[in-house]
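Everyone, study these two lines:
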Amino acid sequence: MSLSSPPPASHSLPDLLLSYLPGLSVGAILGFCAGYAIKKIGRMTALIVGLLFLALQIMAWQGLLTVHWPRIQALAEPWLHQGGEQLSNWGLRILQTNLPFGGGFVAALLLGLRAR
């Protein structure tokens, strides 16, 4: 029996839950790991971006360079918009492909993001 097809209707509720357990557990483990990694990488990225912004502001304050923030915003907006669309499409594909795996993955991903 594959994880993507529901079991026959003649099975009892415990049998039904047991048939989905492998997909749920693997999805949950991988989701938690992915969430934890995203959180750690996100913190490091935020630190680097913050330090870079601080360095740019100090150099601009000292008159060493001129930063054209509206131009930077105009360059960054298409990338951010496209990245958000790709992320939402990726999430929808996970949920639509294999519901038990996707459900476990997304739930554990959120837990991984909240983990210390």
In short: The two ends are 37 Å apart (CA to CA). The first helix runs from residue 13 to 61. Residues 102 and 108 are 10 Å apart (CA to CA).
